[in-house]
Amino acid sequence: MGTTNRLVIAAIAMVMVWGIAAKPQAAGAADKPNILMILTDDQGWGDVTAYGATDLHTPNMDALITDGVRMDNFYANCCVCSPTRASLLTGRTPDKVGVPGVIRTQPQDSWGYLDPNAVLIPKPLKKVGYHTAIIGKWHLGLEAPNRPNDHGFDLFHGFLGDMMDDYWTHTRHGQHYMRLNEQDVRPEGHATDVFTEWAIDYIKDRAKHDQPWFCYLAYNAPHFPVQPPKEWLDKVMAREKGIDPMRAKLVALIEHLDHGIGQVIAALKETGQYDNTLIVFTSDNGGHGGSKANVGPHRGFKQDMFEGGISVPFCAVWKGHIQPGTKSDLYAQTMDLYPTFCEVAGAKIDHEIDGVSILPTFLGKAQTLSRPMVWVRREGNSRYQGRAYYAIRRGPWKLMQNTPFEPYQLYNLDNDPMEQTDVSAQYKKEFNDLATQLRAHIQDAARIPWQAPN
Fold first, then answer.
1. Burial 135-174, CB ≥16 within 10 A → b, else e
2. Predicted confidence band of residue 30 (pLDDT cuts 50, 70, 90)
3. 27, 273 contact by CB (below 8 A)
4. What is the CA radius of gyration of the chain?
5. How many CA within 13 A on the CB side of residue 250?
6. 172 has which bridge partners?
């Protein structure tokens, strides 16, 4: 072979090597961003420093809020866990996919059954080339056909059940629910650290592939039992003199959670994927009163249809698309994220949903949603007796109850944001209008069973 030919071949080889080396690490084509959905568990509206908390430090959550759009009128679809998660993954009100209440291990205390025919977010995203994963808490079924892989997720690395009885043993009612897809796994360490590590592993692995991805990162924290690592609690006790002991534990658990979120975001940046990733951060419902949560300027806590039970912190970050440091007053719900993610990904929705894309709001465009917002929760025990209770809001008017056995109350949230004065007697037309709309919703949702077939 002549010298000239050898030089040409060497040059071609060098171009090929540099072409491969220069290939961007950001997973996904330029027009299809990665999507990272971070959902915390029972984090109150006010339990973020940026939302006014003075006794806890959440620098990583705050950084996300600073880097994107903050929505102070964002609502979870329910005041408890499973229903909100069903809405997030289906774009529907939870009772329309069979999850009006919490799905639990013991059948006699389980109040939902995810419709096996529900179209979860992996299905439309996979049609346009996405790899899909859930890391962390599932809480929508323990057996086929209602596990994550049954509903289209390519990867499940997390916890099947509802709450953990212990953050270190990862058990519920003495059973292990940690899984790698369908395989039983027994990781060591605090659950928050475990899920953080698994999310980082996923992000680093996907950086090697030329494929966009969707990752639903669902932490158990700060759901009770409030069990922060000792070093995190010691730090809070030393810093916050005179703090309530239970509040100190919750603060430490949230600060530990914030640290984990920071590590995940750092992994995105280190792998070159941050700039091409839409990140959404929120909670599944309001804070837990018994854990001394901070729900900000709201009445009530988790399990309540008062604002404190359903108002949650929220932000979305997408570099180059979402203007940093912006705020929106739009009223939206968790189910709106399903069509938002589909629009971002260029995925078509060819089935009925209830959510509406809020991508225009993310991008700084004017948007108004005039629909009524509905909340439902079905629960057992002597307070609820297996019955459902509801809330519905349209404009400033909110009709609600906190148990199925109490009369509905009507509030004007513009005039009475703390929901102190029931005005149902004075505003009968508004009461009747909302009640009529709510009955129509209940009839529509009744078509979907919420118990497993025999």
1. bbbbbbbbeeebbbebbbbbbbbbbbbbbbeebeebebee
2. low
3. yes
4. 23
5. 24
6. 175
Residue 433's CB is within 10 A of a number of other CB atoms, namely: 16
The arithmetic mean of pLDDT across residues 229-240, rounded, is 98
| Pick among 3.40.250.10, 3.10.290.10, 3.40.720.10, 3.30.70.20: CATH of 34-362 | 3.40.720.10
The domain locations on the chain are 34-362, 373-445
Q: What is the CATH number of domain 373-445?
A: 3.30.1120.10
Q: What is the dihedral of CA 60, 62, 64, 68, to 10 degrees?
A: -170
State the pLDDT confidence band at 31, using cuts at 50, 70 and 90.
Answer: confident
- The band of 3, judged by pLDDT with boundaries at 50, 70 and 90, is very low
Convert the pLDDT of each residue in 396-448 to its tens digit: 999 999 999 999 999 999 999 999 999 999 999 999 999 999 999 999 999 99
Q: How far is the C-alpha of 418 from the C-alpha of 365, rounded, in Å?
A: 30
Q: Any residues with CB less than 8 A from the CB of 416 and at least 6 apart, and which? A: 423
**Is the whole-model pTM more than 0.85?**
yes
